[in-house]
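Protein folding task:
====================
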Amino acid sequence: MDMRSIIAASLAAVPLTACPSTWNCNPPEEAFDDAWDTPAGWLRDAGVEPGATPSAEQCETVCRTAYYESRGWQASVIDDCQLSVYDDRYDDASPADRVVGQVVCEGTGIEFYCEGRRPLGHVEAAGVGGDDLGRVLATLAHLEAASVLAFAQLAELLSTHHAPADLVRRCRRAADDERRHAAWLGVLAQQRGATVPRPRAEPAAVDLLSIALHNAVEGCVHEAWAALEAAVAAERAPDAALRRAWARIAADEAAHAQLSWDLHDWLCAQLSADERARVQAARTAALRALPGRAATVAHQAHPALGFPSVDRATALAVDFAGRLAA
């Protein structure tokens, strides 16, 4: 997969108007507790085999899909999940929209996820002080600094699991790139009186499956989308200093997304068939959620960032997700 070509193809396929939109990285959240009918397509996407007992991870994948489809928000934490499948109504030939079970789950949902790759165990924070744009830039700088931790963490974990030396080197190089991004955006935020919060992460699981699941969502999908957003902002941001910063960030983020997909290939080769199915299900769910996430970001974005209108952002995300899925 050539990420630069995919980004260029999506930008060419979906012409962008001059309509600005906004960005905010302190999303609203809510508690949810509900039951949803489960169609066969959701089960297949989650890797649930006909006649098999769903795992806890598969239940959570279906829960996230159900919550997103009904609410349009993202499930950030799932506290309890139960998935019932009616075996006599579900097989590989079942139409995707046929109801074949029910998922009952509760947890916490947020309106959208912020951009880029977070480390395992990342703790969210938002910029403080300054004007509206300054706080947005400070939050972006915070996320770039969190990406430094993410890639440094990833390099160490890969070394522990004897990954190819080239992948480890590329992770360390990406950490250096993210450090520069954080510095560039941090200066712009500080010029507007905002303070950049320091990133931190809680201890997290470090087995290969956990790394692969995290990389499939944060790297293959979220970081790839962040690279495309940066490319859009580099073309459309009204301020020249922001355009220059986004142009440099876009080139680096495309390389980081490429690293994520290359890492995905290596990680999947180390996993069992069942584990690979779980990774694929997580990536599929993230791709399905991408258009809704893009629309929310576009609706709330600060005009100075140059992001497209809601309709254009959604169309771009649909096209981009389709190319990544292919």
User: Anything to note?
Assistant: The chain has two domains: 3-20+116-325, 29-110. The CA atoms of residues 215 and 226 lie 14 Å apart. The first helix runs from residue 3 to 13.
